[in-house]
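Q: Got a minute? One more chain.
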Amino acid sequence: MTKSGTIWINAGEMSGDMHGGKLMAALLRKAPQLEFCGMGGPEMRDQGLDAVLRVEDLSVMGFTEVLGHIPRIFQMLKRIKAELALRRPRAVILIDAPEFNFRVAKYAHALGIPVYYYISPKLWAWRTGRAKFIAKYITRMISILPFEIEFYKQFGMTVDYVGNPLVDMVDWPTIDHIEPVRGRIGLLPGSRRKEIEPLMPEFARAATILAKDMPHLEFHCIQAPGVEQSRLRELWLSDVPLTIHSPLNRYAFMRGCEMLMAASGTVTLESALIGTPTLVAYKLSKLTYAIGKRVVKVPYVALPNLIMGREVFPELLQDKADGTVLAEHARAWLTNPEAIGAVRADLAQLRTMLGEPGAPDRAAQVILQDF
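A: Always. Here it is, folded:
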């Protein structure tokens, strides 16, 4: 039977759009007749997505931060419910973003449409009870993190582990030959306003402190897609020179840094794969952080630390996401080659734990074998 028809695919944030674009490309390689509609960003639109909704309109994070967007979120969900009933796609693919996508799963299930979840929601971090929801509403769960296999076993569930798609996004023959430049520090303050605005001034403060006794240091900011360079400079409250780079070839540039300071998120797993030691920073509203401390059930927030089972990347959260603390940790690495070398050795081990290239193709095969 020809594997054709329409698939609804839903990404809830920019990192999901990146993975969604790669998955769509893999599906089209195996089944060129497929068509896609749903919610996505530039990566998915480039693959031919009929974007009923844009991921850029949903990209919010945090408990209290979401509250201000509730009317718009419900309007988007209402539109999706109506479109699913009208279009009756052959399947629905959901990518991460459980707070939004679980509602979409219910709509699809009610219509008898199979639901595939690519990039398992982080139930192991909080709300483990939602595993029952997944067992009821999700046809196949496709995981990209090795420790999730054991997590879902607790609930009598089998997941399809396909390896991590970030492995496919790195040009390894080029990357592996790049040597870090001594004194080059890369800054990745995130892609959301609520990440960038608290962190960029603290990164600047750390640079000011470090430059006083380490004048050879150079600071480079890698601009996330959709972030204005002018806004990054406004938030750079330091006289220390800052070079800003576009996202193009960012993996090669990250590899060439002696170390990085980054907002917690997918980028920390990217930096770990590439092999560059990274200080992980994040700030939330006080209420969001207080709620998070009560409900989060894992010892770490950074994916590299969760995968390794220990703190390979220092996690500087909330009050610790401070210029003085960042500078202290950076100096400890920059002045101790053995310490930073030990981190790089750990990262070489982590890279072997994330599977071989081909994760999007393996995920596509899981989906298409049911067609």
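A: The first strand starts at residue 5 and ends at 11.
Q: Perfect, thanks.
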